[in-house]
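U., I forgot to send this yesterday:
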Amino acid sequence: DLTELLLLRMELSLSETAPAAELKNHILSTNPESAKLHLALAEIFAQNWEFDAAIPEAQRAVVLDPTSRDAEIALGMAYWGLNLFRYNEETLNAFTAAHRIDPDGFSTNLLLGSIESQFQRFDDASVHLHAAIDVEPAAPEPWYQLGMNAYQQSHLPEAEELLEHSLSLAKDNNEKPAQLRTALLTLDEIAEEQGQIPDPSHLAQENALKQQMLATNGSGTAEVASNDRSGVDLPGVGSLDARSLPDQAGTKDATDAT
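Result:
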């Protein structure tokens, strides 16, 4: 029942733990063998950062429907969130399984390429990120990730070109401020490492994006910044759209003052 699922989401957002647990049990009692129902519950839990609760629901959805790409993605996202969006074998395995089911999809290629980037499997990541570009060449996310990967490998001219292109594609879209700010900060570092002066226009943009991130995080929206230097652009928690979720900053903590 859609109304009950919406009510469960609301109770979780309000930290009404006991009523939420009771409602979840009631929802499952109506159709315990429904993969779609378990998947919906997994996504609701993930959206509320209840990743430990999302994992068993996603696992059950995978068991009930082994051909479900969305169930594998939900499982991978839940493990990713549980591990603070750092690399882990469970997420890699789930995204690999999702890619086997849908080898030509934008989301499956972007997600697999992103987790492979965290494992520094750059050659594999390049294959899947370019496959995502083949599907949606105007999407900035795979270009950004390729740029961050190039920077990690000290391919500075290539990284500069890729990051500039990702910014050109995202110029009218500030929905992912951490990604945009990280790209700008990384371009500044590339300029300095090449003995050049960073673009002075970047500073105002970086500060504006930082303020946007602080305001967004203050309202509880899931946008993650980390200084693990992976550059990984994460899709949104509990969402199957691989462009709707948190970022992990690459070369600098995207919330650091500059």
